[in-house]
Amino acid sequence: MQSTEDWFGALYYGIPFKDIYEGSDQGSSILFFGWDGTPVLKAHLPYIATSFFVYDKKLYVFTNCGEKESLMIYDCPSVLSK
Fold this sequence. Notes:
With 82 residues, the protein is mainly beta. Helices cover 6% and strands 55% of the residues. It has one helix and seven strands; from the N terminus they run ββαβββββ. The protein has one helix at residues 17-21, and strands at residues 2-3, 7-12, 28-34, 39-45, 49-55, 58-65, 68-75. Strands 1-2-3-4 form a four-stranded antiparallel β-sheet, with no helix packed on it. It is globular, with a radius of gyration of 13 Å.
């Protein structure tokens, strides 16, 4: 989870967490909301993310698939980089 003055974001898997460890890999999403609860952005990822943060107009996403750890870096959507 991360928050700023304008929004907060959280990871969403869409399946019970135990299913992830049983081999189900349906990806994950990062959901961003304004402080009034209004949806701001849904970023769907084709892999299971373990954490994320937004910094310097970039979206950093960590993943840990089995024994392999990765850091994915994306250009940040303008709605989050105010």
